[in-house]
Every structure is written in C-alpha cells, then in structure tokens.
Amino acid sequence: MDIRSTSQHLVVRIGDQVVAASERSLVLYECGCCYYDIGGGNRAAWSYEDAWDEVRRVCGMVSFEPDEIEVSLGGVRLRLDSGQKVVSHGVDRNLDLDEARGPGK
Hints:
Number of helices: 1
Largest sheet: 4 strands, antiparallel
Helix content: under 10%
Radius of gyration: 14 Å
Order of helices and strands: EEEEEEEEEH
Strand content: 35-45%
Number of strands: 9
Structural class: mainly beta
Distance between the termini: 26 Å
Strand order of the largest sheet: 3-2-8-9
Shape: globular
C-alpha cells in the first residue's frame, strides 16, 4: 500500500459534468475496496467504508478509475500506461495472476 499527497488539481468528469474536484488529492495504490458505478462507468469509483488504521486518512474519500471515466490531475487527463490494467477485486477474492492478465493472455 502506498499513499501520496499531490498538490495538483484533480478533476473528474462524466461527459461535460464535473462530478468531483479537489486541490488536496491523495494518490493511493492498493486493492480491496467497495466499488460504485457512476454514469456509464462500471465500478468507476471506490472507497473504504471502514479503513484500516494504517490508511485511516483515506476513510470517507472516493477514488476514481481513469480507465472508466475521465479523470484529470493538474490539467492532464490520467490514462493507464501501456499494458496497465485496473482489476477490481475484494480482499478475500484471491485473484490469481492468470486471471489478472485476462482471457487468452
């Protein structure tokens, strides 16, 4: 798990509608959260309902998946790097490496 602060302005849009904006964003790399559908984005946002003590500072915040909806940070649209994929799963899901790679890979 890695949590980092950023001073860049975060903007999340669905089409032309701004659904979130922040000057005090955190970047979190982790799995095992509650996921939500937003507009046409399937599992496009997630949050911790009850965060662990080590990550208590993100409790009550919402994170957005840049592969599902438009997310901009510092005026630059976030995109997944080539070959990168967001795989949503819970703590007890036991996702294995072959499943994370996807079918036929």
